[in-house]
Amino acid sequence: MSVMSQDVKVVAPAATTGQALRLFAERRRSFWVVLSLLVLFTAWEIAGRVPISFAFPTFLDTLAAFFEMVADGSMIRAFFLTLQPLVLGVAISALLGIALGIVMGLSDRLEWLLAPVFIVLQAAPMAALVPLVTFVYGIGLVAKTLAVIMLALPVIVLNSYKAVRHVNPSLVDMCRSFQGTRRQQIFKIIIPDASPVLFAGLRLGVAAGFIGVMLAELLITPTGIGDLITYHRSVANYAHMYAAVTAIIAASTVTLALLQWFETNVMRPEKRRS
Amino acid sequence: MTVTALAADTFDPASVVTHDPVVRVEAICKHYGSTEALRNIDLQFERGKLTTLLGPSGCGKTTLLKIIAGLVPATSGQIVVNGRAVTGPGPERAFVFQDFALMPWATVLRNVGFGLELKGMAAAERNRIARRYIEEVGLQGFEDKYPHELSGGMRQRVGIARAFAVNADVLLLDEPFSAVDEQNRRKFQEDLLRLVEMERKTFIFVTHSIEEAVYVSDRIVLLSPRPGRVSNIIDPRIDRTANPDDIRRDPGYLDVVEEIWQGLRHYAE
Amino acid sequence: MTMFGYRIPMMASLIVWALVWEIVGRLDIIFLIPPMTAIIAAGFDLVQTNSWQNATLVTIRSFVIGMALAIGIGVPLGVMMGRVKIIDNIFGLWVNIFVSAPLSALVPVLMILFGMGEATIVVTVFLFAVWIIVLDARAGVMQVPSSLVEMARSYGASQATIMRKIILVSALPEILAGIRIGVIRGVKGVVIGQILVAVIGYGELFELYSRSFDMERFWALTLVLFAAAMVLSAIVENAEKRIEYYAGAR
């Protein structure tokens, strides 16, 4: 089956444009990105034209709706509202989660006490608890921020904890052999060595945070993007509703891709082991 | 030219007398749970000499080295360095790691000066010292490179420079050349001999290569496995003034290698 | 952790937390937290009610169908992506987007497309679980040593045999790892779907208990769910361990 790609090379005769295109395809990842975007959007357009459902707008209609909402400012306002609990929740989860994860990684007692709780919380469907938050904190920003924290915190804690536990033991020995103090060991060896994994955990936390904020906006009270989705659904403005859903998925994808890019290109490129 | 290597002296471990021992290993035993890694090791390491711990895998040579370093606690027995019993790592000993243990996020300069950094030495001072040792191991020009930009051999030179930089009396080398390719390995062994000559320090060296042990050592301690015990002590008595290539062809050198191999072969699988 | 020379298993700390919960519950600080014993008692009551049994049946049915679809589509897609470059190039982007996308935003769309019933839940489970299964199956196939495939070919094995006896078997540890994470995500999917749809299965019960402030039953239901998620993941993990003996050798 791996011959498949080779077959293509051999079988396709020397049409010069085809060759050029193939060369381009091999060299450029962006070619495939564009192609796979095109494939899905075309499929979407066709499915919308059929239509497979009365509630399934075409891709072009959705795109038009998106620009309309950008133009009238409702999309920007919605993102502004959605980002508040998201950024707040992720920031709190990051600070608290990394700190908790690190102390759990450093102390056997705290590991014993806390790790099982977070293992359960990460594996469990935390979404079930979101309705509870409204009892205590109502329907405002605090409740939504808490919903984000509930989903983002466990994954950040567990990744930070694993990052610390998987620090290169040889480096720790090295630090001890030069009579480094425990403090020096933590700040000069353990945290720097763990930081790429800490950052990866943060990225997973952001992904979980997006799920949490959408859950909060759909479940607690509609605000921001959740409000756009709920409102346009209720008035059967499906193209606008799809545009809002697609926009939040795209926003999350771009955010995560940027974090990934940052991780591989800026976060200590020297760390890439040869 | 012919090498005037004398036939090696072999001693009964119990009767070996060492003048001016800098490190004394006294009745060291080590158990990992129910497995016995080391049984009743008694050894003395002479100042200014290079002693090799040699043996098949599982003989506990690295464990013994880490006990001497204070990185691993012994189950019983004690280590005496410069007349004082030690309980942990100390400034008079420096360790060179098999996997180099370089910080990937730090430059060569910072890696070499790291032991001094931990002691709280000011940056200017420790960089000056680090540069001197970087030069001594032949890495000048690489001060600002990161470990991943260096070859395996160069990385270990960084590890050795780091150990020298703290100016310890005793250098503990745990299979330092095992991750280095064969050509570089030979060059390394020669450089090591030069450093032993120059630095007048005590070297304790762990290896599983018989040739390497015979080539670099003043004294070889043979360990036998399961549990690790001292089975023999050999002084190769190689004439170091000879040309390295002649040494490796010298009958005396080859005899010692053969003798050790005969002693160890029944441990081979 | 060891205490007084005894090794205390890690999960034992959950007992400590349950005790803390009990004390907080007894102190009656917030109505949200009833004593653990009361929750457990409510749990025994709950599992005997008709509504719980029906909800469980509906939930399990949606979950199983959704997971079966996710595995049935995800594994073959992942294997194809691992073997065929073009398929990998075209689907790779979307799989990577959806594996970490906020799929909770998609549930309202599913609700209008598939109705307010089980079909929506099935699709939600499928969408939550399938992407990681694809990615792991792909990774598993990609790491099959080419020497192994060449060996089979040199002994005259057909493409089908190579696929069945070398590639699939070789990729099994990763495929199972993907399914395990898929199962955990599927459980989250079934809950998120049901809560957002709010009229079926556990979603309906959660809605009912939280509206009537029946905290004991609310927590009992949550505990049942959490326990089910842990047990399911433990089962797949166990299957993973069984095949680890040969995976460890490569």
UniProtKB/TrEMBL annotation, chain A:
CDD domains, A to Z: TM_PBP2
Main location: membrane
Residue ranges constituting the ABC transmembrane type-1 domain according to the UniProt record: 79-260
Keyword field contains rRNA-binding: no
Annotated localization: Cell membrane
GO cellular component: a single term: plasma membrane
Family the UniProt entry places it in: Belongs to the binding-protein-dependent transport system permease family.
Oxidoreductase listed as a keyword: no
Gene3D superfamilies linked to this entry: MetI-like (1.10.3720.10)
Assigned keywords, A-Z: Cell membrane, Membrane, Transmembrane, Transmembrane helix, Transport
Transmembrane segments: 31-56, 76-103, 110-129, 135-158, 197-220, 240-262
Protein's name according to its UniProt entry: NitT/TauT family transport system permease protein
GO biological process: transmembrane transport
Membrane-topology descriptor: Multi-pass membrane protein
Pfam family, one: BPD_transp_1
PROSITE patterns: ABC_TM1
From TrEMBL, chain B:
Coiled-coil region: none
Keyword DNA damage: no
Keyword ATP-binding assigned: yes
Gene3D superfamilies per record: P-loop containing nucleotide triphosphate hydrolases
Record keywords, A-Z: ATP-binding, Nucleotide-binding, Transport
ABC transporter domain boundaries: 23-250
Molecular function via GO: ATP binding; ATP hydrolysis activity
Similarity comment: Belongs to the ABC transporter superfamily.
UniProt protein name: NitT/TauT family transport system ATP-binding protein
Automatic annotation (TrEMBL), chain C:
Membrane topology per record: Multi-pass membrane protein
GO BP, sorted A to Z: transmembrane transport
Subcellular location: Cell membrane
Gene3D superfamilies: MetI-like (1.10.3720.10)
Domain ABC transmembrane type-1: 56-236
Transmembrane stretches, start-end: 29-47, 59-79, 91-114, 120-141, 189-206, 218-236
Cellular component, GO annotation: plasma membrane
Keywords: Cell membrane, Membrane, Transmembrane, Transmembrane helix, Transport
Stated family: Belongs to the binding-protein-dependent transport system permease family.
Protein name in UniProt: NitT/TauT family transport system permease protein
